[in-house]
Specification:
With 431 residues, this protein is α+β, with helices and mostly antiparallel strands. The chain has 15 helices and 20 strands. The strands form 5 sheets. It has a 7-stranded antiparallel sheet with strand order 17-16-13-14-15-12-18. A 5-stranded parallel sheet has the order 6-2-1-10-20, covered by helices on one side. The radius of gyration is 25 Å and the shape is elongated.
């Protein structure tokens, strides 16, 4: 590999051009920062339209960020929290809400603390955002797949007609996403391109995904698609309340996603992950045992558990899964309801995961998110090696790293930064 100095792009005297590769949240936010600073920006994307994964995420309600205390918020990023903290402090959840408001998309806090646009969907926000970017002079080159660099250090893109288009840019921002939902644009094809430059890339793995369970036919045939509501899951000392959904292959849903990182690591290490399900997390075990000590009076066990313990048929079936017989003792039965065992045996494939773990380690980047081996090239978004649960944390970090990479590019080009949100009503801060 040629030395890094051979690839150095000299900062231009005037009229710099920055290529942003990837038209998702991180790339579009980087383009906005650069456009506001007066830089000529072109966003390249291999798909025929922009923000496809953002639109998919918004189908059930676009969860922009979360309203919880910042110390708890930043802890959701686990090992990556120390690196991401200053980037998210520079563009906080309140800043994200103000930015959305500036696009005419006011936000609200849901009962879970999650933050959504009042329109709830992603499409109004994306339309307003693309209109803003167009007004800033940002150009878009769609159906352009990035193929790496040519020997002269130019970016190379392929197009559907078989052409290979070289592009000379004064700086570049890579925002190519992970490898989940590849049909929406992020397919991980960038990994070998960077590895060919001597850049280390941590293996891409599924995150926020479902898991396989070896269900009995009784569960699979009767309860596929059924939700498990108001439960709590415990694994390796971590406890999460929420909901899950039974699938033909296993289990998925918000509560499972919140534990997906340790569950995944256990399965990759041990081939299995023993999970405990509290089917009545709002009821102490003593109170539950008292209810279960009542006489059954001829009721079937399923009917008794439904009436005395408030368990729906799916919960009763889960209690019986793998059990020769349920305990007759009320206290033992209460203990089982509060910690029903379930063994997860495998991972949902990466292409079906909500997000991706692994990617570019922060050690491969400097403090401005510039690749140490490719000066003038920056990286942002999900292609970086961090992960977080669903709940607004994924988008928040994607936006924040997009901003940080753009500001790194401006610093590299010796161009003053510009405020993301202009003074006035659109900059209103949210309590």
């Amino acid at each position: 590999m040629p030395p890094a100095s051979a690839h150095r792009m000299s900062p231009p005297a005037s009229s710099p051009h920055v290529a942003v590769i990837g038209g998702g949240p991180a790339g579009l936010m980087a383009a906005e920062i650069l456009g506001r600073a007066g830089v000529a920006v072109t966003v390249y994307d291999r798909m025929p339209s922009l923000g496809r994964k953002l639109l998919m995420a918004g189908r059930g309600g676009l969860n922009l960020t979360h309203s919880e205390d910042f110390s708890r918020f930043i802890a959701r990023y686990a090992e990556a929290a120390p690196v991401l903290r200053p980037l998210i402090e520079a563009f906080t959840p309140d800043d994200l809400r103000a930015w959305s408001h500036g696009l005419g998309q006011e936000t609200f806090v849901g009962s879970s603390g999650r933050v959504f646009p009042k329109a709830f969907k992603a499409s109004p926000l994306l339309r307003a955002w693309l209109t803003r970017l167009d007004g800033l002079g940002v150009r878009f080159a769609l159906r352009h797949r990035w193929e790496g660099w040519d020997p002269e250090g130019r970016l190379v893109f392929s197009t559907p007609d078989g052409a290979h288009v070289p592009v000379r840019a004064d700086a570049a921002i890579l925002a190519l996403g992970g490898a989940s939902w590849p049909r929406l644009g992020s397919d991980g094809a960038w990994v070998p391109l960077l590895q060919a430059q001597g850049v280390r890339v941590a293996p891409l793995r599924p995150a926020n995904m479902g898991f396989t369970v070896e269900w009995s036919e009784a569960i699979r045939s009767r309860f596929e698609g059924e939700p498990l509501k108001r439960i709590a899951l415990t694994f390796e000392g971590q406890r999460v309340r929420g909901e899950a959904v039974v699938t033909a292959a296993g289990l998925e849903g918000g509560a499972i996603y919140a534990l997906s990182a340790p569950l995944r690591d256990a399965i990759l290490r041990d081939g299995r992950a023993p999970l405990r399900i509290d089917l009545r997390p709002d009821l102490p075990v003593e109170a539950l045992a008292k209810r279960l000590s009542q006489p059954r009076r001829g009721q079937s066990l399923s009917t008794f558990l439904r009436k005395a313990a408030g368990l729906p048929p799916l919960a009763v079936a889960l209690l019986r899964e793998g059990q020769a017989a349920l305990p007759a003792d009320a206290a033992a039965l209460a203990e089982l309801i509060k910690a029903a065992p379930l063994t997860l045996t495998g991972l949902q494939p990466l292409e079906r995961a909500i997000s991706t773990a692994g990617g570019l380690p922060f050690a491969e980047l400097d403090e401005t998110l510039m690749l140490r081996r490719r000066p003038g090239t920056f990286a942002a978004g999900e292609m970086l090696d961090w992960e977080a649960p669903t709940g607004g944390y994924l988008l928040q970090a994607s936006f924040a790293t997009g901003i940080a990479a753009a500001r790194g590019a401006l610093r590299y080009l010796r161009i003053p930064d510009a405020a993301l949100t202009p003074p006035g009503p659109s900059a209103t801060r949210h309590p």
